[in-house]
Design goal:
Elements (H helix, E strand, L loop, with lengths): L1 H11 L5 H18 L12 H39 L1 H9 L4 H41 L13 H28 L2 H5 L13 H23 L2 H4 L2 H30 L2 H4 L4 H14 L1 H27 L12 E6 L13 H11 L3 H4 L2 E11 L11 H11 L11 E3 H11 L10 E5 L3 H13 L3 E3 L2 E5 L19 E4 L8 E11 L5 H20 L3 E5 H44 L1 H9 L4 H41 L8 H28 L2
Parallel strand pairs: 3-7, 4-6
Antiparallel strand pairs: 1-8, 1-9, 2-3, 2-8, 4-7, 5-6
Helix pairs in contact: 1-5, 2-3, 2-5, 2-6, 2-20, 3-6, 3-20, 5-6, 8-10, 10-12, 10-13, 12-22, 13-20, 13-22, 13-23, 20-23, 22-23
Length: 680
Amino acid sequence: MLFKLSLKNIKKSIKDYSIYFLTLVFAVSMFYIFNSIDAQKSILELTSSKSDLIESLIFIIGYISIFVSIILGFLIVYSNNFLIRKRKKEIGLYGTLGMPKRKVSMILVIETLLIGVVSLVVGLIFGVFLSQFISILTAKLFEVNMSEFKFIFSYNALTKTLIYFGIIFLFVMIFNVLTLSRYKLIDLLTASRKNEKVKFRNKYVTVISFILSIALLAYAYDLLFKDALIMMNSDTTKMIIAGAIGTFLLFFSLSGFLVKVISLRKKTYYRNLNMFTLQQINSKITSTVISTTIISLMLLLTIGILSGSMSLASVFNTDLKENNLTDYTIRVFGNYYIDDMASQISDYEKLENLENEIKSDEFKKYSKDQVLYTEYVDKNLEFKDVVLNTDLENLRKEYGNAIAIDYKLPIMKYSDYKNLMNLYGKDVIEINEDEYLMLANMDIVKDVLAPFQKSKKGIDFNGKHLTPKGDIIDIAIENFNSSGNTGVIVINDNLINDLDIIYINIVGNYVNTKDVESLEENFKNYVFINFHRYVDASFNVDTKTDMESSSIGIKAMLIFIGLYLGITFAITSATILAIGELSRASDNKNRYKILKELGASGGMLNRSLLTQILVIFLFPLVIALIHSYFGLREINNLVVVFTKVDLTSNILLTTLFMIVVYGGYLFITYKCSKGLIKNK
């Protein structure tokens, strides 16, 4: 009997359950999809390094899933609370008819269980099919062959989804029983007669709040523009607190201003149901100012995470070939760089040892076309010496400490430069005794150095004045996963006398490319075992495959984690807004009934309702978009130091995503709210 009654209640309230059911299906699908990555390994042809990257990704996703499940658990309980509130009168009638609370609680438990089972099944079906696209995305990210692609199903993701959501639904059932036990019968029966009180604030309080909000937001933006977000210090805390309170006060005062401004335009204010609509909007924002602030900040996180992760991921997908012109780079640190390590071998001894080593038969078993080149420093030549004085101050203001203007500028022999260019297959530029070349490929560095290069002012070096030859040469001189050459000066060999060595580099290619992974592993072992004898110092080996794997790994992490958290926050924000609007529509249906009795047409009521929902949905989104634009612009100033990427460009893509999610929830909210106010 109780089961049949529960089933009948669900069928009768199917429209009321639509938002709740949609949220559950979304949550289950997303949870399964992002936890099914473990199944990708079995169908992808992965190298050991890429397999390790997926293992790391699975590990991180696992921990993030705990955080996501807590958010989704809160969301499901919050959504379920709306259904309980709406059905107070129905539950009260059960009590009036003599049904004990134990049986009423059992009805709610059965309903929760039925909805949970159906949403789990539907969500998992969607999740399984959509996870096939994740397989394609994973293969694309990890650049592997999908010739063996087949339909996949993750038992691990299924088990985890069932366990996590089983626990969530258990909490929902307990919550329902506890909630019901606290209600008195009289409260349940009279719940539909209790309307939300319309609150009006004193105009002076509204004005003062608005002025304070502008002042606090201005202070927060001022700190933001002074690198508070980047520096992560006490100013960062001040900026976040000021921004959050400023946003709260903005929502607190904005509705009052909206009503006041429009009320001054009498024709507009008294046209159709505008007066009623504005007062409803004012009441809604006034009574939900805290939740609206939290939603706006959640949307800020959503936009920031999605835009930032997608933009940064694109960085690691570009310029890999341009920055990995050889198979490997061995970088040996000079004593100037590691003088605290007290090396027993002088830099010039190291240089001689390495020159002999790369000529050995043992080394040539692994490498061909290798080139050894040395980077020197002169104590009188710094980065700021090749930047125009007029640009130095702007450089300090724009980037602060992000660019070290006092660091010693590396110097390279012209003969080493020629050998490198020949290895890379690039044109060699000839220079005279009184000329130098500048090599750099980091975008911001090139932009800073270019005016000085074009000015032909030149530098003084070892008693000789040298002028720049041509433009800055855009070239990488070692293996790296982004453009990292911050500037190297090339001068004639005979000008380099007794300079300190900072790096001795060896670049080259492998003897074959048939089994690069195995050859590279043996080569690294050989280098690490033998080079310590020759250099007695620190060194590292960076390879093209290392850079590709690192780039792929970071890119995959950013995309998967960004999507996972971004979608979670977006769904959470939209659901809270939708549930709030449905609750208010249910509470205010008597007001709409009175308006209809006074002669308002159905079209007027629908337009009023739609306007209210649009404003409530768009207010927090617009504020979040403004905050995120300026926040991402400042982060972009830091990122652009290392690579040219515009984080703000992806706000448009993220906004379109938000419109789709918001649009879906807004449409369903409007349809359900319209049904509620028409319900007799």
